[in-house]
Design a protein that fits this description.
With 153 residues, the protein is α+β, with helices and mostly antiparallel strands. It contains 3 helices and 8 strands. It has one domain: Kinase associated domain 1, KA1 (TATA-Binding Protein), CATH 3.30.310.80. Strands 3, 4, 5, 6, 7 and 8 form a 6-stranded antiparallel beta sheet that branches.
Length: 153
Amino acid sequence: MKKISLFFVILTAVAIVALFIMGMVSQSGQAAGMLDGRLTPCPDKPNCVCSEYREDVEHFIEPFQISGLAMNETSASLRGIILEMGGEITTERTEYIAATFRSPLFGFVDDLEIRIDPEASLLQLRSASRVGHDDLGANQKRVEQFRKLFSQA
């Protein structure tokens, strides 16, 4: 019985150390960025959502409408929402914003990317984890929270 208990204690310790290491690894790197004028498609893992590729049904989320807002008002609103949600803006260009969000326990970093499409009056979003396979819906929830705050702005 003591051997089984010791085994589970060691196994738990190894798992916790592995999660901390993955968290540290996720802190290096950067957002996927743009590909041919669009946000990069999601990889074949359930830890990413993106509004650019409707045909990718497993990762697709609806883009946001931005009708009636001037471009500079949209950018200011996006910055404010990101900061309110606890994100850190890492890249900001005229029609593109990238931000990181860090999980409180292990420090996992997720990227939120926004492409402002003024011609179509849309915000295209991509939210993805840098490491791991499954995010337990964290990126989907982040985009839903962002949508709610954006609709209130």
